[in-house]
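Question (not urgent): is this output format expected?
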Amino acid sequence: MAYQWDSSLETGHEKIDNQHKQLIAALNSIIDASRNGKGSEEIFKTLDFLTGYTIMHFTDEEKLQEKYDYPDYLVHKRYHNDFKVTVGKLTERLREEGPTEDMVNTVTSAVGDWLLNHIKGDDFRMATYIKFKQKEEDAS
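Got this back:
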């Protein structure tokens, strides 16, 4: 397994953390399918799931940010949009070149590294803000 969930990835927001775990599991499934020769059909099926789940996850995060008037919403949304474009280009390249081990490694490294950095930085800040706003809401 290339990516491991650990406490450094916990934002403290249960729904977001659970979705992040699913994204990491899907990424690991692609790596596993490639390493164990499960075939391109399995790799592309999992990649399609990862892409769709990422879009759903980003939508959920952005709704939370809007609900709590997150001050960095537009910047965060731009990061999401840029990443969707990057994943689209990588997926297209993978389909064109085929799921060789090198190409799968390129895709999973780009996606995985971005995801881990985004969780530990942008998502952590966003979740901290939302938790603060929720406490304010509860105290009212």
